[in-house]
Amino acid sequence: MRRIHVIGIGAGDPDQLTLQAVKALRDTDVFFVLDKGEAKADLVELRRDMLRTHVPEGTYRVVRARDPERDRSAGGAAYSPAVEDWRRARADIYERLIAEELGEDETGAFLVWGDPALYDSTLGILEEVLARGTVEFTYDVVPGISSVSALVARHRTGLNRVARPVQITTGRRLAEGFPEGVDDVVVMLDAHQVFRQYADQDIDIYWGACIGTPDEVLVSGPIAEAAPRIERLRAELRERKGWVMDTYLLRRHPKE
After folding, report:
1. Is the distance from CB of 198 to CB of 214 less than 8 angstroms?
2. Domain end marker among 87, 113, 145
3. What is the share, in percent, of the chain residues with pLDDT greater than 70?
4. Residues with Cβ < 8 Å from 122, sequence gap 6 or more?
5. Are residues 171 and 192 in contact, defined by beta-carbon separation less than 8 angstroms?
6. Do residues 92 and 197 both lie within one domain?
7. Would you say residue 18 has pLDDT above 60?
8. For the whole model, what pTM was predicted?
9. Number of domain units in the chain
10. In whole angstroms, what is the distance from residue 236 CA to residue 244 CA?
11. Which of 77, 110, 145 corresponds to the end of one domain?
């Protein structure tokens, strides 16, 4: 039967590959890579560098497919349907790749940025493909170093404080209000820099973009002081690279 490895490859630094990930790479016949276009070609090249470094040449092949576009203008009630349409389109691609490009006794792999279990769609999409019943395969998951772990490590801080909870959320949710009952909040997928609406509160931000890559930038400090620098650096990165992946931790100072 066909097998699939879902391999977490870290936040961008090739040294963040775990020994388990390297073992899975060397156990793979076909690597499936979704191409996000010229603007993000360096993401594909980073994957190729990892393969060249850790897998003997000639022991595998790479199959590329174009990643479907998602309607990022959809908001409000239209947001969830837009995401579902995009996931369905991805499932169509995964289904075709596995059925047509992977032999019955071969092992394929999807290389996932960060950790496959944290704000990534790969596992859910593979389950959808299996539910369709058109192609049979088994899969396993190799955890990776997430951008969250890499962020706090680079800032030399902890994710939580003693006896206090931490919450991971999205920029879309943060725009609805600061989570109740928690003072340490990690925010992912924030294209609109929502942290700026909390600049009048006693909150520190630990921000990082392109973590683990040569373009990595880090900023920390009170939001009111850090926000202008973050905005400038983020704009410069987007202008130069065409994309930005950033994550941040908000740390509120509770009133005594």
Report:
1. no
2. 145
3. 93
4. 6, 110, 112, 116
5. yes
6. no
7. yes
8. 0.90
9. 2
10. 10
11. 145
Please check whether residues 152 and 127 belong to one and the same domain: no
Q: What is the model's pLDDT at position 13?
A: 86
**pLDDT for residue 29 is more than 60:** yes
Taking residues 55-59, what's their average pLDDT?
92
Is pLDDT above 70 for 56? yes
Three-state SS annotation for the chain: CEEEEEEECECCCHHHCCHHHHHHHHCCCEEEEEECCHHHHHHHHHHHHHHHHHCCCCCCEEEEEECCCCCCCCCHHHHHHHHHHHHHHHHHHHHHHHHHHCCCCCEEEEEECECCCCCCCHHHHHHHHHHHCCCCEEEEEECCCCHHHHHHHHCCCCCCCCCCCEEEEEHHHHCCCCCCCCCEEEEECCCCCHHHHHCCCCEEEEEEECCCCCCCEEEEEEHHHHHHHHHHHHHHHHHHHCCCCEEEEEEECCCC
Structural domain harbouring 51: 2-145
Inform me whether the pLDDT recorded for 98 exceeds 80: yes
- Tens digits of residue pLDDT in 170-214: 999 999 999 999 999 999 999 999 999 999 999 999 999 999 888
Q: CA distances (Å), 109 to each of 7, 25, 72, 106, 147, in order?
A: 7, 8, 27, 10, 21
Task: Output the average pLDDT for the chain.
Answer: 92
